[in-house]
Every structure is written in structure tokens, then in C-alpha cells.
Predict the 3D structure of the following.
Amino acid sequence: MILKFSFRNIWRQRSRAIAVLATISLGISALMIYHGFNAGIMNQYRENTIRARFGHGQVNTKGYRDQIWDKPWSKWFELSSTFVQELKARPEVEFVFPRIAFYALLNNGEKTLSGAGEGVDGKSESKFFTTLNVIDGKMLSNEEDGILLGKGLAAALGLKIGDRVTVLANTHAGSLNAVDVYVTGIFFAGMKSFDDTFFRIQLPKAQELLDTHQVESMALGLRKLEDWPKVESWINNSREFEATPFNVLDKVYYQNSVDFLQAQFNFMFLVIVIIVILGIFNTVSTIILERKGEIGNLRANGDSYKEVLGLLLTESVILGLMGATLGLLISYICNVTLLAHGIEMPPGPGITRQFTTFVELQASFIPVCYLIGLLSSLFGTVMAARKVLKMPITELLKG
Amino acid sequence: MTFLYEVKNLDFNYQLEGVQFQALKKVNLKVSAGDVMTFAGPSGSGKSTLLNLMGLMEETSNDMIFYNGKCMGSMGDGDKNNIRRFDIGFIFQSFHLFPVLTTYENIEFFLIRQGVDEKRRKELVQESMEVLGISELQNKRPTQLSGGQRQRVAIARALAKRPKVIIADEPTASLDQKNGEAVVDHLFGINKKFGTTIIVASHDPMVLRHSPKIISLKDGEIQKESL
């Protein structure tokens, strides 16, 4: 009966009930869509970071990344080690990509520029690293003498697909060595420092250049992102090796972006919640003022302050739940209609390339939406009802 | 002998926009269980104030009103709420029915608040509707009823609580002569049938004609009591 009473009371002033519902549902849908938008960007950043360059993480010998080594190759390792074989055999691990990073000079016969090189297993990496935006040619694959380089670097050297270039570097013994390669692809990651300096050649070519049979690190491609903690723990428990996740490897681009977006979301979250509470307060204040006579009647017939507040809060709970449900529905409908083709985004911080992001509504955020709908409705009602409920019964009965 | 109400030398002041008004002066009154009494007088005479005080609706800390031998000034909010919930039925000039509830539900509402079980509620609601002759209106909402019908629903609602006393403030003021007479008949009929004490505040001559005991007030003072 009390529920029926509360439910009917909500609809007694239809326009006001719609105003409250609209306030809650628009607030909730804004929150849900904004949260989904952030999740979309974060997931895209994460996928870019993983699939463009770093994989899910990297394996090095223990302590290698902690300091600058006078002779870094002394901390490099053989691919034939038992650890590497066991790592490859783990069910969570889909790919192991051995790598060597080095600094080198690139010469096109006319000019020489410095660059940051990486020796990679082109064939296997081309299967996993799918989001490195190759704008000309193709990813490094089977080409033994191929080189994939950034747009800025290629432009500075005036290189195009098929052009030859000499890569010069010091061997670990300190002598100068060189290998000749030809351009198979040019990428545009959108990060200027990366596009202007970075290049990749095949791992055997890099090992020939540096006169080594060892590798510096291994990038890992897992079957599922969620498996990382398990694999990381297994690696860190070994005596010789340690693992570093992609978000640490790419702190500047990925983690800082995620932290920035999260801080922005928290602020907007607060603003939206305050707007919803004030909206509810405004409408409910009017509703309660118009129901003074009814409240007086309840008080006259023995209801305490808390009991009348309880009745009003029952109504606000129903409104909060209905508003949140409606808001979630609106956000879903918007996502499959207006936002279905994604949102064209300008380049993010540190990036020069535009991108399209999609709103990825998160089921895990639904309980938060209900909680916000409920609490803002309750809080707005308490604020609005406080003053009226404290009025003397005789004043209330005057209406 | 314990009276249902005993008012001793009651003074009561209002504070209105910083100015103090004396609404009641040295009022003395005794009401026994089963009495029917009407406070009469022009607007501003203090009759509604006295009624509100006896209905425990007006905040007062004075110790000049006693309900069932208990001093109202010393009662806590919980005690007052309980007395209003179980012992007093209210009838107001503007009915104060819940517009979203049907006649049946309006009458049932305060029984739910009393914690009466469903079976007993049904009996009480049906009996009250029969007494007031409104059984056929049980599924109608207040907006579908005339003024007289609404007031009869309000009386049925007060009666269903089976209160010791029914307090009615200007119960006929919003009604025409015919409906007003019907309401008064019902109200005083309840006293005869159930022995409920009835206290009315009214300046309607028709009510006064039917009332067995009239307390006339003027400027907050009792002018005369007539039987």
C-alpha cells in the first residue's frame, strides 16, 4: 500500500515527475556515455600501445632497465636458454618477440642522420603488431634486408620504398660496422619523436651489425590481457629475468594519458552529480511545497518527522531507480544510433594523428549509475523536505 | 474522576512577524469521554487555536492542558504522535484526502499506519463506509467526488481509526446547507453509535443548532457555555 501510494504520488504531477526523471536520466546517460567514451579512448590507447610497439610487456635480465650500463650486452641473453623455452611453452603466451634496441647512423649516400633502431623478428611480429600505421609499403616481414622507418626519418633522408640505406653502428667490441638494407615500409605513429627517429630491421641483421648472437629483450604477446599478472609473477619469480608491463614501458604516452583522462572524468562526474542534485532539489522543493497540506494531515494523524520523510524518500528511491534505468536506456540507444560510427577525435597530447574513437559502455559502471541516481535523488529530496517537515502541523495544514 | 481533557487557566500566545498576539486567555474547560461539544465564535476568537491545542497539533510547553490525566506540556513528540495516531480522529475544513488514493484506500491508510492487520482493516473500512453511506464510492478518487461526499469520506477515515475523540475544524465550511446538515448528522450520529467524543469548532449556525453543548469564545476568552 505504501509503495502504491508512493508510486501514484510520483505521477500525480506528471510534468514535475517528468522533470525529475529527465534530470536524473539525462545526468545518468551523460555519465554513462562519458565513462564509455573515456573507456573507448583508454582501450584504444592501450591497444595502440600493445599492438604498435610494446606487446603486453617486455622481459629483460634482472636489473637491466634500472640503470645505464657501461657494457649493456653483458646483460643480454641467449634465446636457447631453458627459461625462454619454458616461457614460450606457457599457455598464456602466444608470441615471444626477441629484440635488440640500438642507436645507429643512417646514410643514404648523401647525408647521415642518427636514429633509434630495433632488431626484430619481422615475420612473427607482423602477425601481432597490427596497429603500427604503415602509410607506404608494408610491415617488415620476410625481407632479410628490409627496413621499416618512421615518416619523419624517411622524409629527412629523402627515402621512399625500395631505396637503399646503410645502417652504421658500433659492435660490442667497439669497432664501427655497417649493413645495407632497403626501405620496405614507412610508418606514421603520430608521435613526432618516434616518427622522426625510429626504424626497424630484421633481428639477424641487427645481430650482424652489433656482432652478437644474443638478444636484449623479449616482447610478449599474450592470448588475453588479463593473463599478464600471472605471467609477470612467473617471470619475476625466476632468478635471472624480470618483466615490465606495457603501461610502464610507455608511461609518457599511455599511462599519463590514462591518468589525465581519469582525472578529467572525476571532475566531470562531480559536476554532473551536483547539477543532478540541484535539479532534483529545485523540482522536489516545489512538489513538497504543494503537498504541505497532505504532509500536515500525515503529521496530524500521528506520523513522525522521520515517517513522513520515509514516505517522501520512498518516492525518491522509485524516481532514482526509474531515472537511472531510463538514463542507461538512453545511453544505450544513443550509442547504437548517433554514436555508432564513432567520434572523430583531434590528435591527443603528444600525438599528431587524428583518430576515431568509439563509446564503449561498461557494464561494470551500471551499479555506479544506479547508486548515483539513487543517492542524488535521496539527497535532493532530503535537502528540499527538511525545512517543510520542520514546520508546525497547523502551518502545514494551511497548505 | 479523570476527564478526557482538562484545560486549566490556559493562556496561549502567537508570535506573528515579531508581534505577539494573545490567542487564548484564562480558558478553563473539562471534557468527559462521550461528550459532544462545539466551540463557537467569530474568526479570531481562538476556537481553532483551542481545537489545535487539544489535538496536540500546536507546539506548547505549558502545563495547563491535560489529556487523560497526562500533562501535554510534559509529553514528548513520540507520546503526542501516538495519541494522534491512535486516540484522535481529525476532520478538516478542506478535507485533506489523498488525491492519489481511492475512497477505500483513503480510509484504510491510517489503519495501516496504526499497524492494524488486513482482515481487521477491511472490517473497519467497510463498517465506516456503511455508517457514512459511501460504500458505492469506494473505488472513486477524491477528484471524482462532490464536496459533501469528500467530507463524508474524511469522517469515515476518522471513524475507522476508532478514536477516543474526533476533532473537527469547520467541517461544514466548504459545503452547502444540505450536505452540511448530512455531515453534522453523521458526525453526531457517530457519538450516539460508538460513544466517541466529538469536539467541533464552527461558526456555522446550522452546526450550532444541532450541537448539544456550545462553548462560545470571543477574543480568546470563553464567554459562555450553553447546553
Q: What stands out?
A: The interface with chain A takes residues 52, 55, 57-59, 77-78, 81-86, 90, 92, 94, 96, 98-101, 105, 108-110, 112-114, 161 of chain B (CB under 8 Å). The longest helix of chain B spans residues 177-194.
